[in-house]
Every structure is written in C-alpha cells, then in structure tokens.
Amino acid sequence: MDDLIRKIEKSYGLTVIRHEKLRETPKSLVVFFETSIGRFIGKVSYLPKERHHFILNAEAYLRKKGILIPNIQRTKSSKRYIMWKDNPFVLHQWLSWRKVAYSSPVRLAQIGALLGQFHKRSLGFTSRHGELYNGAKKWTEEYKADLTSLEKWELRNRDKKQPNFSAIFEYLPYFRQAAQTAHEHLKSSAYFAKWKKAPLKRHFLCHGDFNNGNLLTRNKQIAIIDWEDVRYDFPSKDISRVLSLAMRKHGSWNEQLFVYLLRSYLQENPLSADQLHLLFVDLAFPHIFERFLRMKQYEQMDLANIQQFCRREALKTAYMLDELQALA
Fold first, then answer.
1. 110 and 245: one domain?
2. CA–centroid distance for 204 within its chain
3. Where in this chain does the record put each Aminoglycoside phosphotransferase domain (predicted)?
4. Cα–chain-centroid distance for residue 243?
5. To pair with 173 at 20 to 30 A between CA atoms, which of 15, 93, 165, 278?
6. In the prediction, which pLDDT does 104 show?
C-alpha cells in the first residue's frame, strides 16, 4: 500500500493524511483516502483495460446527461486514472451521504423514477468496445442454459427426501413451466429479434447492481455509485434487481410495491407495448429461482426461509405471467 500512496501523492499533487481499506475482493480494491485537498474513494479494478474504458466513458456520458455520479479526480496531467501493478486506479469524489432505504412505496417510487431517468438518458451512448458488453447477445443462450440448469438440478436431487428439498420440489414444476412459457414468448417476439440487431446507441445501459448500497441520498438527491457491472441490456435487468431486494426486505411478494416502482419508472421512461411485453417476459422467467438452486443458496437457509422464498417468487412469477399474457 505504501508504494500506491507514494504514486498517488506524486500523480495527483496531494498529501495522503490517512487511509482505510474498505473492501478487497478478486474484482477490486477499494480504499478511503483523506488528503490535503479533500476526501476520496480510490479503486483498483482488476479488469481488462477495454472494460475499464467502457465504464469510465459510460459514467462520463451519464454525468453529461444529468445523472448524479461522483466525479473522478484527474491527475496533474489531466489523466482519468493511474496504473498500479498493471491495473487502473481511479480516485472518485467521496460522498458522506446515507444509503437509500427500500422502506416504503414512496421510496420505491423514487427509485423507479431515478432508474427510468438513467435508462432513458443512457440511449445514444456508444463505445468502440461496446460489442464486448452487449447483453442482448446473451439472452437466448442464457434462457436455454437456465432451463437446462433447472432440469439438471432436479435430476441430481430427485432422490433427496429431506424437508428442505421437499419444499423446493413442491415449487419446481411450476417454475420449470413458467420458464418454458417465458422462453416461448421470447422466441416468438419480433421485437426481441429486432432489438438484438439494433445499433448499440439504441440499446439502454443497465447498471447491473442497482441495490440500495449503491444509491446514496441527501436533500432529495440520489447519487449512483459502483458502475463495475454496467453494460448494454434491457431495463428488466435493473428492475428485477430492485424488485428482488424490496421483496427480500419486506419478506413477501407485494403487488403494490411493484406497481409503484413500475408506474414511476414508466413516467420517466415510457416503453412501447412491445417493450413492455419483453420486460414481462424477462421478469416472468425464474432467473432468481434458478440462481437460488445453482448457487445452493438454500444450504444457508432453514425450512421456513426456503418456503418463504419459494412462495414469494412463485407469486411474483404468477403476476408477471398474467401481465405477459395480457400483452401477448
């Protein structure tokens, strides 16, 4: 760390007064710095240079469009980052704001509006590395892979009689049928076929991890941080993330919360009937249930929590399928 601090001081023309390592994972190192010119979050991302440029350029584009993202501190030579151990290091403005709480329909409506603003304003962004981060190219294979994953999990575990597995098997046929239904709608969607081939400037950017830990608020403003997973994709990906976290906090499926979220979203980013159809296709597909099985999340849960999780996911899926059929 000492050599990094020396390089920061030389490159940015500042003195580091104190620092604190906040997080270190295989993907990144995050450090808080108090310096002679202010407070910053420093981040080393263990990513290819192309990926790093894509993230920085996406952030810069969205800032210009009015999305509140902490600024980066440029070096004395006006560079956006320095290299440390062959990896890019960036200093971001530090915000001492509180995290957004998914505590009420009103708060969820605010988050929906922010998400809609971000998605709408992201249209037009282009990058020479864009095809590397085009989520649309992966949908067909991901749907097939998730269907296969559900089938394989059932085959591997069909002889297990413990109560936890019995609870999962009670819901598994329903989720497999829902997955097949959503997949059929995806294959028959003319809009999906057209969207996949559209120029990337007509694709939305998705944050990829739109959770309340990455939303900071003060005086009715909300800043979005941690853009490591940003990519071109469809709004359902970020909406699903918000909805999943809200359901987890409240412990059950809540139609009112979703209505608040989607209504506020659509006020900022109106979607056509074809786009709404694709949105509900993706929300109806049991991506979260498949991940629950594949990652063996049930091993960390007791029977009551497994039943609660399966029940709320099933109720959510049933709602999305109803909306999907209404738009078909």
1. yes
2. 13
3. 30-262
4. 11
5. 278
6. 83
Look up the pTM and report it: 0.94
Residues of the domain holding 84:
2-94
Q: 297-328, pLDDT tens digit by residue?
A: 999 999 999 999 999 999 999 999 999 999 98
Among 125, 122, 109, which Cα is nearest to 266's? Answer: 109
| Residue 311 burial (C-beta neighbours within 10 Å; 0-12, 13-18, 19+) | middle
pLDDT digits (tens, 9 = 90+) for 95-127: 999 999 887 888 899 999 999 999 999 999 999
Amino acid at 155: L
Tokens, residue 299:
């091993």
Statement to judge: residues 165 and 215 lie in one domain: yes
**Angle CA 229–283–153, to nearest 5:** 85
The sign of the CA dihedral 127, 129, 131, 135 is negative
Number of Cβ within 10 Å of residue 193's Cβ equals: 12
Residue 99 lies in a domain: no
